User: Which sequence fits this backbone?
């Protein structure tokens, strides 16, 4: 039996590939569990800094495997009881309830629809092939968005754009996705994986404690009022300053690196 989730280490980058091309990388229950565990392991591996999620054979993910849903072999994950364990809770598509301490970038080719759209929304950023398509295609079959789609999509692209996609299920191409803010980068067809890995390598070169602290504050603030969010930002930033990482960066700047805004040799 072919592994349905493939992993490849590229230095400090982990490439995770959904490998079910015969069903356009639709996810069944064993694949979902494997995806979830793969990302938990990534988060705990100190030798890895950024992950890239993609799909095999030119398709990102067509969502949940509707054949397994229809024949009753898809095992629905019970809704998480509060408080959600953001580091271990499994979702129907695998990692969707997880809140990692490290970034994940989606490399989207072909279709990212239904649960596949939700997996792409779970990622921090989306690098998208020019001919890629997003959509709530499960609208046609009465299958709900249950992996964060109704929560993350409005937060990413605004309620008006999100409710349009959610109610109609219509396809959204790469250029429209870029205008909405759903796609962070649009690249020539067939190059999203390499472009996403290049972006991951750029992120991996930065001082990691500071980057992860700022990332965490950006996510935490959704749950907080303004004053509390500012206090949380200050607390997290203070931890970075006390770590010595900022002082070391300032020393590199004083030694002549990064002048003129360059990101080379930092």
Assistant:
């Amino acid at each position: 039996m072919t592994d349905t989730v493939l992993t490849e280490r590229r230095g400090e980058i982990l490439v995770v590939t959904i490998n079910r091309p015969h069903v356009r990388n639709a996810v069944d229950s064993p694949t979902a569990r494997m995806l979830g565990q793969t990302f938990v392991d990534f988060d705990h591996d100190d030798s890895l800094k950024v992950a890239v999620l993609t799909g095999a054979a030119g398709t990102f993910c067509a969502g949940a495997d509707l054949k397994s849903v229809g024949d009753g072999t898809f095992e629905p994950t019970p809704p998480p009881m509060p408080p959600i364990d953001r580091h271990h809770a499994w979702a129907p598509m695998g990692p969707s309830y997880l809140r990692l301490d490290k970034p994940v970038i989606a490399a989207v080719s072909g279709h990212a629809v239904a649960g596949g759209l939700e997996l792409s929304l779970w990622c921090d950023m989306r690098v998208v092939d020019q001919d890629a398509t997003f959509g709530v295609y499960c609208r046609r079959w009465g299958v709900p968005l249950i992996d964060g789609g109704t929560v993350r999509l409005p937060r990413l692209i605004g309620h008006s754009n999100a409710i349009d996609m959610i109610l109609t299920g219509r396809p959204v191409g790469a250029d429209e996705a870029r205008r909405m803010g759903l796609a962070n980068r649009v690249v020539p067809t067939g190059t999203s994986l390499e472009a996403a890995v290049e972006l991951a390598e750029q992120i991996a070169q930065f001082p990691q404690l500071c980057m992860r602290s700022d990332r965490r504050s950006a996510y935490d603030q959704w749950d907080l009022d303004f004053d509390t969010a500012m206090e949380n930002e200050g607390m997290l930033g203070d931890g970075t300053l006390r770590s010595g990482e900022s002082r070391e960066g300032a020393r590199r700047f004083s030694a002549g690196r990064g002048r003129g805004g360059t990101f080379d040799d930092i």
Remarks:
- The radius of gyration is 19 Å.
- The longest helix spans residues 226-243.
